Inverse folding.
């Protein structure tokens, strides 16, 4: 359960465009979350993590933030995954970091927990 497999990553350009074009979104400072229910055989959540170059200039720092978000998601996704399995649904989700400072891991984990709780109640 504490893994983040390749099949859980959103990397299909058509799905990404559809997610941003017709998906729903909400904000939880400092993140914006876009989500869209998809039609797939498996009950899975595909995740895209983005840190805009406009906010964080150096790639090293963007990668650090992305790693923190993925790790926090990986460790706290259990309740959300169980809800998705019960509902027999699949989702594409994008988490975008919108601040211009590098956060601590504890701050990121706290915010990701709030995001996952909120998303669990939405679906």
């Amino acid at each position: 359960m504490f893994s983040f497999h390749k099949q859980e990553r959103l990397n299909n350009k058509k799905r990404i465009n559809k997610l941003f074009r017709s998906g729903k979104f909400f904000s939880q400072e400092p993140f914006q979350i876009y989500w869209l229910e998809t039609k797939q055989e498996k009950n899975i959540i595909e995740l895209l993590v983005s840190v805009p170059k406009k906010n964080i200039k150096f790639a090293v720092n963007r990668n650090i933030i992305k790693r923190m978000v993925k790790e926090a998601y990986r460790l706290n996704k259990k309740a959300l995954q169980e809800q998705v399995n019960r509902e027999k649904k699949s989702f594409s989700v994008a988490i975008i970091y919108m601040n211009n400072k590098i956060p601590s891991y504890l701050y990121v984990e706290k915010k990701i927990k709030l995001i996952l709780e909120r998303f669990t109640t939405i679906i």
